[in-house]
Design brief:
- The chain has 18 helices and 19 strands.
- It is of the alpha/beta class and 549 residues long.
- It folds into three domains: 75 residues, no CATH class; 338 residues, 3-Layer(aba) Sandwich (Rossmann fold); 99 residues, ANL, C-terminal domain (GMP Synthetase, Chain A, domain 3, 2-Layer Sandwich), CATH 3.30.300.
- The strands form six sheets. It has a four-stranded parallel β-sheet.
Length: 549
């Protein structure tokens, strides 16, 4: 099987691709196939079975390609052949990774170390930034902890130096993403371009090569698909009966998940039939009912809004729902599953490493794709935090992306790893839960010092209010928070009683009494128009200049 994969991969990656060999040449397999068709018809003395008889038969059967009255056989069309080979290559790629979750952890660790060494050496050789960072380190014999960390500020401020392709210039990338027509197109014919939302600060330009996207989609189709049977047989079946995937977002754009999805038809081939929809379309429900998706992909806030209207949706073939980009709180997850009665894996990833994990439909949380990513939960001093304890931040290494290496890249998410083995059978490390990002906290002042208030307090308080569909906490002053609530349709509870219940719940969950809470009930809460994400925690004043004061 690996040998067959290499053969197909060579056909598609060679400079002399099948399409290039078929279209210009006169003596090639496409012409020969059509020529044989003509010769067979001539031997039989007629054109029976080959369509209507043309008025003027070509004098030379080799000229049949240029003879427009003769319809070419679709099986031998170069575009069909290329499409089939892409699908076959993707199916073979899946067979190479589908059994990794059942491997012994020691085996996965060996693969991980081998890929890490290869990536580190490549980054030090081609990237000026990493060449300087790794100066003095023996890159043939090193431990992961010896490698210095990096972060968004460093990579953004040294964008060109962090890349391994010296042809790339920031100005060219910025011009590329300014044109929405470039969505789904490869920058320099090689790289997928995206940028982070900027909701946590300065946006970061991200480039990925084809391998990174192939691993992402292959993991989603195999490890992230609880009802699938990945492999070549399934691939051939899906070539005839593609999976219908509906993707509902606020708008299209160069944000990481949206940009990657634009390349899905090309990379996955004919496995899928994708329908892109917008949550603001007035006929969204009708379009979903007409399309009848097998898989529904969207943000948690949009999925919850659809769940409320589930009585209008008649998705008879729906098998799976996938949440992307937004954190799925337990209250929303329960409401979505009760409405649709299908699996709801919660995939956890970052824009810098989309392939990071796949949601577990059995135990919840998500399994780290440890063969292609390294995930470290650490404290404020970058020391490892054991499973079962909540970390302060994480360090992510993307082993598949070689054009813009992210090695021990710091992300402010607070994560707890699971302790017990997972009942689903996967032996890959599992994230138990994600509490949120460091930005999803408020700094308050108790009269003598500043202290942090976690978004978990508001989340826990709102979970007990079943009348509330969505909420948003906005810090307007150091010790003042405005709570904006969107109630469920047909809620009979008067807003004043909802306000009273919320204040009681916040006190119960230990929100300090000197924090003033204003409650506002609004008709609808919408995602941010710039980032297309819904933000529950917004601070209009930011952290103090000196948190220790």
């Amino acid at each position: 099987m690996p040998r067959l994969y290499r053969i197909v991969d060579g056909c598609l990656s060679s400079r002399r691709t099948i399409a290039a060999r078929c279209l210009p040449a006169r003596r090639n397999w496409y012409t020969i196939a059509c020529s044989l068709r003509v010769r067979c018809a001539a031997i039989k003395g007629g054109w029976e079975g080959f369509g209507p008889k043309p008025q003027n038969r070509p004098a030379n059967p080799r000229d049949v390609v240029a003879y427009t009255a003769f319809p070419p056989p679709s099986l031998f069309h170069p575009a069909t052949a290329m499409s089939f080979l892409h699908s076959l290559r993707f199916a073979l790629f899946i067979t190479r990774i589908v059994h990794v979750p059942q491997w012994r952890p020691a085996h996965v660790a060996r693969v991980q170390r081998r890929r890490l060494r290869r990536l580190v050496r490549f980054a030090a050789e081609r990237s000026p930034l990493y060449r300087e960072k790794y100066r003095g380190i023996d890159l043939n014999h090193f431990e992961l902890s010896q490698l210095p960390t990096t972060n968004k500020v460093e990579v953004a401020s040294h964008f060109e130096e962090s890349l391994t392709d010296g042809r790339i210039r920031r100005a060219d990338v910025e011009r590329f993403i300014e044109n929405p027509d470039n969505l789904g197109r490869w920058f320099l014919d090689r790289y997928a371009v995206s940028h982070t939302s900027g909701s946590q600060g300065q946006p970061l330009l991200i480039l990925q090569d084809r391998l990174a996207l192939e691993v992402f989609f292959a993991a989603m189709c195999s490890r992230g698909n609880p009802s699938g049977k990945p492999g070549v047989i399934e691939g051939i079946r899906r070539f005839r009966h593609p999976v219908r995937v509906a993707i509902v977002t606020l708008r299209r754009g160069f944000y990481p998940s949206g940009s990657a999805i634009e390349f899905m038809p090309e990379i996955v081939g004919d496995f899928v039939h994708i329908q892109r929809l917008s949550s603001v379309q007035s006929d969204l429900i009708e379009r979903l009912n007409a399309f009848q998706p097998n898989v529904l992909v969207s943000y948690a806030s949009i999925l919850e809004a659809l769940a409320i209207q589930s009585d209008k949706l008649h998705l008879n073939n729906l098998r799976q729902i996938a949440n992307i980009s937004e954190q799925l709180v337990p209250r929303a997850g329960k409401r979505i599953q009760e409405a649709f009665h299908v699996a709801l894996p919660d995939h956890y990833a970052t824009g810098e490493c989309l392939l990071l994990s796949n949601g577990c439909p059995t135990n919840g949380g998500s399994h780290i794709n440890a063969d292609w990513a390294i995930f470290e939960v650490v404290d404020d001093d970058y020391r490892p935090v054991p499973p079962g304890q909540l970390g302060k931040k994480i360090l992510v290494t993307n082993l598949a992306n070689t054009v813009q290496p992210f090695i021990r890249y710091e992300v402010g998410d607070r994560v707890m790893m699971a302790v017990e083995p997972c009942r689903c059978g996967s032996r890959l490390p599992r994230i138990d839960h994600v509490e949120g990002r460091a930005a999803e906290t408020f700094w308050i002042f108790d009269g003598s010092r500043h202290q942090l208030v976690s978004g978990g307090i508001f989340c826990a308080a709102l979970d007990s209010l079943h009348e509330v569909r969505e909420w948003q906490a906005i810090q307007t002053e150091r010790n003042r928070v405005k709570m904006r609530l969107e109630l469920l349709p047909h809620v009979s509870t008067p807003p004043p009683l909802v306000r009273e219940a919320l204040l009681h719940a916040l006190t119960k969950h230990e929100l300090p009494g000197y924090v003033v809470v204003d409650v506002e009930v609004v008709p609808k809460l919408l995602p941010d128009q710039v980032t297309s994400k819904f933000r529950r925690m917004i601070s209009e004043i930011g952290p103090p200049d000196d948190p220790q004061m």
